[in-house]
Amino acid sequence: MTSTTEPTEPLSVGQLSATTLLRFATAGSVDDGKSTLVGRLLHDSKSILTDQLEAVEHASRNRGQDTPDLALLTDGLRAEREQGITIDVAYRYFATARRRFILADTPGHVQYTRNMVTGASTADLAVVLVDARNGVIEQTRRHAAVAALLRVPHVVLAVNKMDLVGYEEAVFAAIAEEFTAYATELGVPEITAIPISALAGDNVVEPSAHMDWYGGPTVLEHLETVPVSHDLAHCHARLPVQYVIRPQTAEHPDYRGYAGQIAAGTFRVGESVTVLPSGRTTTISGIDLLGKPVDAAWTTQSVTVLLADDIDVSRGDLLVPSKDAPPTTQDVEATVCHVADEPLTVGHRVLLKHTTRTVKAIVKDIPSRLTLDDLSLHPHPGQLVANDIGRVKIRTAEPLPVDSYADSRRTGAFILIDPADGTTLTAGMVGESFAAPQPVKDESDDDGWDF
Predict the structure, then answer these.
(1) pLDDT at 416 over 50
(2) Rounded to the nearest 5°, which phi and psi values hold at 305?
(3) Which of 87-91, 265-269, 279-283, 421-425 has the lowest mean pLDDT?
(4) How far is the C-alpha of 418 from the C-alpha of 425, rounded, in Å?
(5) CB 317, CB 379: distance < 8 Å
(6) Which residue, among 83, 74, 93, has the nearest Cα to 36 in the 3D structure?
(7) Which residues contact residue 262 at a Cβ distance below 8 angstroms, ignoring those fewer than 6 apart?
(8) pLDDT tens for each residue of 369-405
(9) Which residues of 5-112 form beta strands (DSSP E)?
């Protein structure tokens, strides 16, 4: 059972290991065994209910299978079961004695790239599956690129179906070397390769008896022990204001608090803070957490902050340390993944939602579209269609305090919304992409000179 007592200072990774939440996503090409891996993980860690297992066994028997098809634990849509593929992002929640997990099982098809972006956008770790018989293929490189683009700090290469290649160490080593070289070039900070058989259960929860040449962790062991917290005390502290609390009761006649979830860093009583985008400065006079005053609060905690001065603060404002305030701008350059069926075009009028603030905006330019197959940039595509990733320049009606996505995945991210019906159009990441590939030559720029 997790204690509800809040410490007064951020804990170390080791101290947090029993209570931390790990968000992770799975990705891989079609038939690489993602859903089977997830099902095996849930089954062998005893994280499924008896009636769920009985339902899977019944469905498997109806399909003429002698053993339970563990992929059915995640492929819940009828179309997924009929085709044997994953279409939608399936979220699963489970826990072990060492950690709690939120798992996003994402599709492998090229046309569902936007679904992987959705599932991996909040992930601390991505599990990329590879069929040991096929090795690193185009879709593997695409998923590695998306993980790098979204700044996922940890990537696990799960080389699956080792039972079908005789559990050969050489096969695993060659795939691990090729993938690691590619992902490292993209800027992925940490890569862990694990040989597995999701169908047989090798190295998923229990160590394999068939691969004594492998001395590393199982998938679950790695998930339970991988560090998911950085040094919270030294992050850029950011608190998007979600709600202004004014009870105006006899007990609290003058109480005015600013509530929200801390997006990054640590806030302390007595600290000088600036309210953005107005730029006004004041001091934190108190922090309430779960109805009790505390001296400090940090990332992911939902708090109410009291300020020493009576200044204008409302939903959508951002509280930041005065000595570490991001610049405000109306011109946002970002890498985006377009998720809507309607194309995004130059001149498109949209709403831009950044943390708790929503402003009017217009797409001023689409300088390039990224091809994940070879990481080339195609200049001036004119539009982005569903699943496209590209660079955009956006002009907002009001200044926004944005961080680079490389510095903060929370305050460096935004979405574009259709103002007519509220549909999410595009997911954006402020600043440069994961790499600076060489652009494809734009023939329109060729003036005929030959040097």
Answers:
(1) yes
(2) -105, 135
(3) 87-91
(4) 6
(5) no
(6) 74
(7) 237, 238, 239, 297, 298, 299, 300, 301, 302, 303
(8) 988 767 788 999 999 998 888 999 999 999 999 999 9
(9) 21-28, 90-95, 100-105
Closest CA to 126 of 30, 223, 33: 223
Query: Which is it for strands 154-160 and 292-294: parallel, antiparallel or unpaired?
Result: unpaired
- Asked whether the beta carbons of 331 and 394 are under 8 A apart, the reply is yes
Q: Kindly provide the residue ranges of all beta strands, DSSP E only, lying in 29-141, ordered along the sequence.
A: 90-95, 100-105, 125-131
Residue 259 near residue 247 (C-beta atoms within 8 A)? no
Strands 266-268 and 296-298: antiparallel
Task: Pick the closest to residue 179 from 209, 203, 158 (CA basis).
Answer: 158
CA atoms within 13 A of residue 251's CA, in its CB half-sphere: 1
The angle that helices 169-186 and 138-149 make with each other, rounded to 10 degrees, is 40
Phi, psi of 378 (to 5 degrees): -100, 115
Q: What are phi and psi of 444, to 5 degrees?
A: -65, -20
Q: How far apart are CA 412 and CA 430, in angstroms?
A: 5
**Phi, psi dihedrals of residue 133, rounded to the nearest 5°:** -75, -25
For residues 195 and 184, give the distance between their C-alpha atoms in angstroms, rounded to a whole number. Answer: 19
Contact by Cβ (8 Å): 288, 306:
yes
Asked if 226 and 259 touch (Cβ cutoff 8 Å), the reply is no
Tokens of 450: 């030959």
What pLDDT sits at residue 141?
87
**Using CA atoms, how far apart are residues 32 and 135, in angstroms rounded to an integer?**
10
Residue 276's Cα: distance from chain center in Å?
25
Parallel/antiparallel/unpaired status of strands 191-195 and 280-289: unpaired
Model pTM score:
0.79
Q: Is 441 left (phi over 0), alpha (psi -120 to 50) or beta?
A: beta
Task: Count how many Cα atoms sit within 13 Å of the Cα of residue 50 in the half-sphere of its side chain.
Answer: 0
Distance CA(387)–CA(405), nearest Å, equals 20
Structure tokens at 244: 């202004």
